Amino acid sequence: QVQLVESGGGLVQPGGSLRLSCAVSGIIFSWTTMGWYRQAPGKEREWVASITGGGSTNYVDSVKGRFTISRDNAKNTVYLQMNSLKPEDTAVYYCQTVHPSRTYWGQGTQVTVSS
Description:
Elements: E1 3-7, E2 10-12, E3 18-25, E4 34-39, E5 46-51, E6 57-59, E7 67-72, E8 77-82, E9 91-98, E10 103-105, E11 109-113
């Protein structure tokens, strides 16, 4: 059974940082591309970043230079380091994977950027 469990969200002031974690079980993690998505109130869920099993990364333009996705294959965990946070980054953040043809999501973690 594939499970994804996010943690690390919270309330942070503009310009602050947070690191999200997503612990994964039920798949051969080191082979699997992982993604982070977010959904702000009243908006569609949007892709934020992804990392392949080989470590190649991609980001949506709005977070380039501020967010970093990484993975620890020994811990079956993917991370999203978020720096220079802005109020428009406020959303529920979800990790995601596809295995082998089914999409799995975590339960989400709330990130609120506000003074």
